[in-house]
Specification:
Bound molecules: FE2/S2 (inorganic) cluster
Number of strands: 5
Mean pLDDT: 97
Structural class: alpha+beta
Low-confidence stretches: none
Shape: globular
Radius of gyration: 15 Å
Strand content: 15-25%
Number of helices: 5
Length: 156
């Protein structure tokens, strides 16, 4: 039986009618049209579906939408402000850290969660923060360089 739930995504409240077994990933993509969140493995292995819930990266494929009620959800669509890319997004572009782009939204959100808590991370801390996010294309070096550059910029 369907149920109406309320989700706060990127600062906006959305009411949606869903079956309780629907994942947050399905609701974001299919009900709210926020297709920046990608589906890879669908079982918690790739991190492509990463969103932030109360600032923490979570796999939206493993999270039921009803469980996310009452929390602050941030997707990749919530990062740019006033038509300007978030510094992490800009650094990924500048450092060639995007190839096919499929891992990029989840990777950037995992990095955002890290930099919000730790603005000057070591390389090992960056590697740890993105360890749940797989990239088949870049070999990770450019991704790590981009995150370092964004951290530097944030720190001034
Ligand atoms: S799609 Fe969620 S972890 Fe792979
Ligand atoms: S850029 Fe293709 S998977 Fe990372």
């Amino acid at each position: 039986m369907k149920q109406t739930i309320e989700l706060k995504v990127n600062g906006e409240l959305y009411k949606v009618e869903i079956e309780p077994r629907r994942t947050l990933l399905e609701v974001l993509r299919e009900k709210l049209g926020l297709t920046g969140t990608k589906e890879g493995c669908g079982k918690g292995d790739c991190g492509h579906c990463t969103v932030l819930i109360d600032g923490e990266p979570v796999c939206s494929c493993l999270t039921l939408a009803i469980e996310a009620q009452g929390h602050d959800i941030v997707t990749i669509e919530g990062l740019a402000e006033g038509g300007k890319l978030h510094p992490l997004q800009q650094a990924f572009v500048d450092y060639g850290a995007i190839q096919c782009g499929f891992c990029t939204p989840g990777m950037i959100l995992a990095a955002k969660s890290l930099l919000d808590k730790n603005p000057d991370p070591t390389e090992d801390e960056i590697k740890e923060a993105i360890s749940g996010n797989l990239c088949r294309c870049t070999g990770y070096v450019k991704i790590i360089d981009a995150i370092k550059a964004a951290a530097k910029q944030k720190g001034g």
